[in-house]
Prior knowledge:
This protein is an alpha/beta fold.
Amino acid sequence: MQARIFDYEGERRCDSRVDLVKAAISTVDRAVQGKGIAAMKISAMGPPVLLERMSDGIRELQSFYSHLCDEQECALSYEELKEALVSVSGSCNTADIEDRFAELDDDGDGKVDLMEWMNSVSLGELSEIMMREPGVEGPRLETVLTEDDLRLLQSMYHRVDAVCKAAFDSGVKILIDAEWTAIQPAIDKVATSMMRKYNRDDRKGPIVFNTYQTYLKDARQRVRRDLQMAQREGYRFACKVVRGAYIVSERMKAEEDGRESPICDTYEATSASYHGVIEDLLDHASRPSIIIATHNAETVKFAVGKLSDCPPERRDDVMFAQLYGMADPITYILAKEGYRACKLVPYGPISNVVPYLIRRAQENSAMLGTPAVAQERALLFAEAWRRLTGRGS
């Protein structure tokens, strides 16, 4: 196997970013004690190339299970798992396999389903299995993680955990941003592990929020999967829901790779995806905490309409968010009507903040010509007229 070389100066930069995010948490806590929200990117906590390999490993883990289990909804029995492991390794230690099956069978029903498999089999264990499997080469071999890879991943987990603990101790909500699809499986896994740890305190409420980009075709399926996992394991599910921020680069990358784009084909399809996710979240019996982050008036209208059909206390679990300086009429109207509304402010060095704002501009430019933009323009003209004349239009 070819050795992989990582930039250890980059590791030091990752360590310094922990302090930066902690500083943001402290600043927010001082400004709005008990109501603060901060955000972080997992790609700032570890090498992105390693997150890509981790994501490839997660996909391989799911693919390996599918290979063992022909039907999507099936679950592995002890005998099926034993047969699969023997076929891979060529040897059999019955006692070890029995112990491992008991660990995997979380609910004790004598079967290991996909969720139990994905939660219980580590990437290190998968790498060991694949190294014993004959004929593993090419792209599949690239998903095998070395000891150095695993050590660096552990360092990344420690950094993320340090940030989440600081948020938990101060009562500040920490939003884990969604990023590009090549590393999103790794982000989801890290976010889930942090929710599992920090979203169990009923007094503080959920602290860690994952982010779902609804312009992705699989967004609704992923939200449903993660809701089910949280309900099964007994922690509070919390998320931020957005349209998506990497539309240009994702489509270009898919075209370069000759594969189907993961992005919804039309604006209307993205809206349907967004509204479907909101519907699933608001209807779920576990009352997940939701931040609906959108500048789209139609999506806000849809969410408010759904909330009106829910018990009044459901409002306590829902917050609306817009970027500071954008969609102000939406924020002010929501607040005036008694909904929880907030402004998100980019925080950090200018060199890091500017790319974020560029992605926001690209995201908004993709909406030019849509009804949402026409409505926003009308609101801006009406406000300009009011300020110039001192009266309504």
